Structure formats: C-alpha cells, structure tokens
Amino acid sequence: MTERPEVPRASAIRPYVITRGRAECEGEPLAWESLVMTAEAAFPAALQPEHRAILAHCEGLISVAEVAAHLGQPPSVAQVLLSDLFRWGLIMTRPPIPPAERADVTMLRKVLSGLESSL
C-alpha cells in the first residue's frame, strides 16, 4: 500500500477574521516586493497570533509576499497586518528598488557571457 503525501489544509479562520474585517491598510499599502524587518522595540503581550508569526519571520529582511506565503494568507491580509505592526513601531520597511535603479539585465548577461568565455 502506498502512502499518500500530506496535503496542506486550508485555514479554518477566514481572512476577514484575521484582519478584524479590514480590507485595506491605514495609509499607503506596502508593495508586495517591499522589504520588512523587526524594529528594536519590545513586543507587547497582547498581539494576536498572526502578528506574532509575522514578527518571528521578520528577523531579517523579508518581502511582503514572503510574509504572506509564511502565513498562508493572501498578500492583502499580510499588508493589513504589516500596516498594524508598522503603525505600532514594531517593524521597519524598505521600499522596493525603483525600476530605473535596477541593474540592466542585458548588461549582466553580457558580463556573464564574457566570464564564461574566459574560462
């Protein structure tokens, strides 16, 4: 008899319960590629479990999309919860790098090709 692989279960808690009915962030929502990390503040004991889970994953820089994946929730839910943490001073954010400042991929490919040909 073959064993069935473990299938992840969907959370029984609906996203609107986690965000307390809020569908939008207070202020400007964080872009999915924005990076967040914990601040040097003490965490209050009265945080809900999802906030605590986020803080556990934000020890280093992590994107909003990665936070959502770790929580198993849609990115919009992560944005609302991260907005709470930011407003409370528990996380810091770093905006995504604007496209004009990103490395030119064609130039990087040329450099890689040149390095490979010199080997």
From TrEMBL:
Which superkingdom is the protein from?
A: Bacteria
Protein name from the UniProt record: DUF742 domain-containing protein
- Pfam families in UniProt: DUF742 (PF05331)
